[in-house]
Amino acid sequence: MLNEWIELYNPTNHSINVSEWILIDNFSEDTIEGDLDHGNGTTIIPSKGYAIVADHGTRIYENYSISNETIKLYVDDLSIGNGLGNTKDKLILKNSTGTIIDAMEWGEDYPDVPGYPAALVDVNHSLSRYPDTDTNDSSMDFYDGVISTPGSRNTIIIYSHLDIDFYPAYISKIQNNSDYSIPFAIKTNMTNFSCLQDYQIKAYVIGNLSSTFPATQLWDGSDWQWAYFYLDITTDENGNWSDWLYLRFKGDYQEYKNNTMNNNAAYLIVKIKSDNISREGFAHKVVGLCAD
């Protein structure tokens, strides 16, 4: 896979030997070994030190400037797992005795990884861990690393930010003999966007992060719209906007029937777009589902 890698960081006060440690993705597993092509073959990560795990044939060292102090490691074949998936995958790190040291997931909620999956990022971006953060929940621990920094501390750049400030911890499903659920409200927040700029915003719920269509409708102020409908909004003189949005489940939507109705949790999504941003802004939260 040539330009894929995993970064390991040793936060402890002692060195750790990762010889014979295992990396597992959703299809296969690999053994970690020392890299004699780009490093000195050691598998010992010093205290507060970084290591890069790549595949044989990697080109990462030609494409990035990586410190000589970074420990260079290989997996034992030509790919990490069966290749790191762009739409969904997981990584589990086990030591030589089989104890799980860490795990993460994106795009799908795997039963053997704690917490919820991280949001997907653009191709050629990295899923980067927030510095000094480990909650055992990928959705909270990882962010879109626009600028990759393999082998060194992750850099967080302040960009325009979209978030969901308030939302129900549990959303009621549709009651028997009803076509719709009880409406619920969320409060969204945009900061550091263009001042007095027109944007379009939508919110919806899906039961599976890979789903294309919503399970909910969105209130436009006078009527309920299919949730792929965008509302027109305008930021203030500081480039900010915040307001409440109202949603409800619709019983005959395929996403509700197939991926939401019988689940205990779902994903609440908010997206924005405009002519002056290159891609849609995105925020998501995990919410519980309950029978009212």
Helices and strands in order:
Blueprint: E1 6-9, E2 16-17, E3 22-24, E4 29-34, E5 44-45, E6 50-54, H1 60-63, E7 71-75, E8 89-94, E9 100-106, E10 126-129, H2 138-141, E11 142-145, E12 161-166, E13 170-172, E14 184-191, E15 198-206, E16 216-219, E17 224-226, E18 231-234, E19 241-249, H3 254-260, E20 265-273, E21 281-290
Parallel strand pairs: 6-7, 13-21
Antiparallel strand pairs: 1-6, 2-5, 3-4, 3-8, 4-7, 8-9, 10-11, 12-14, 14-19, 15-18, 15-20, 16-17, 16-19, 20-21
Describe this structure in words.
- By secondary structure, the protein is mainly beta.
- It has 2 domains: 6-145, Sandwich (Immunoglobulin-like), CATH 2.60.40; 161-290, Immunoglobulin-like, CATH 2.60.40.
- The protein contains 3 helices and 21 strands.
- The strands form 5 sheets. Strands 1-6-7-4-3-8-9 form a 7-stranded mixed sheet, with no helix packed on it. Strands 12-14-19-16-17 form a 5-stranded antiparallel sheet, with no helix packed on it. The chain has a 5-stranded mixed sheet with strand order 13-21-20-15-18.
- Helix 1 (60-63) links the parallel strand 6 and strand 7.
- The longest helix has 7 residues, at 254-260.
- The mean pLDDT is 90.
Question: Main attributes?
Answer:
mainly beta, elongated, 2 domains, 7-stranded mixed sheet, Immunoglobulin-like, 292 residues, 21 strands
